[in-house]
Amino acid sequence: MAKLILSMDGLVLKEIALNQERLSIGRKPQNDIQIDNLAISGEHAVVVTILADSFLEDLNSTNGTLVNGQPVKKHFLRNNDVIELGKYKLKYVSDLQAGAAASDFEKNAAIRSGTLRMPSELQLAPGENLGRSGVGMASQAKPPMAGLAAAVQLLNGPNAGKELDLTKTLTTLGKPGLQVAVIARRPHGYFITHVEGHKFPILNGRVLDAQAVPLGDHDIIEIAGIKMEFFLKD
Fold it and tell me: Which of 76, 132, 166, 215 has the highest CB neighbour count under 10 A?
């Protein structure tokens, strides 16, 4: 199980296991991690953890949030990332010895680093030609409802034509450090959200903002130079 190590001036104050989906950080006492310091906003940031993946989001704090010295709004956390809030630091540590869950995490890490090439999360390289013709029209379909299976098919790049089933609660797509987005499977449909990078995903030719956007059947998504089609499965 991943954890956060809270420290100040090199002194470790506590360790917090990421054993819940949403963990809030801020000065107010109702936060899961309370930091009683005026440099910290009342509700400063939140860490969302789904399966083996954790995401940090700054909640429009007054003084901002840094990760490895860089200001962030949303950030996909990787092992040994250091979150900075004023004089306080939170180090993100992944436990790779936690059985099957760890095995999945290691596989995902290999995919993200490029050592394992798969047509799935984060291992997407830009290409020139589309894998299918006649795709690219904006979908007018309503968001799919609960219970419907869905997938994305890569349309260009070395893995063009391959499909990725969206069976997880959260599927990560893109390239860490460049552009990362997630597709969330919710009870009332599938939604895409920007997580990391200066450039935002493109949906049916329109650049998205920081808000989650519902996906419709045959929507065309572009992330980190890769085009893919979202579709419902029979």
Answer: 215
